[in-house]
Amino acid sequence: MKKLIVPLSILMMLAILPFVACLPEEDDGTGDPRDKFLGTWKVDETCSRMNYIVTISYDPSNSSQVLISNFGNPGPGYDPAVALVTGNSIYVSSQTIGPSWTANGSGVYISSSETVDWNYTLKIGGNLLQCSATYSR
Description:
Blueprint: H1 2-21, E1 39-45, E2 51-58, E3 65-69, E4 81-86, E5 89-98, E6 101-110, E7 115-124, E8 127-136
Antiparallel strand pairs: 1-2, 1-8, 2-3, 3-4, 4-5, 5-6, 6-7, 7-8
């Protein structure tokens, strides 16, 4: 009898595996993970110790990306930073965002406070700044 229990246990686990693998992922109901990042945000940043505004919009050329106007506060007239959204995370790969400014970093959407917490670097001329910021509505 004991010899039969082990193979039956293994067989039962293998039979359950396909059902566990098909469980749906948690869905926040928006359908598009970028939606929670869209809009106008107030920024509280450590690098410049300033508060400023950014606007996040859909990237019309890529369904996984958003455009962040005024990322790092380079001022008006510069192209927005392009960011990739995956779930609750947002990533800005190394790119030029202002007059000889390069940005690189990531953020996480915090649903309980409806904020985005960022850590990124700004290279401005020869200076490399380690920044953190909180985006709030």
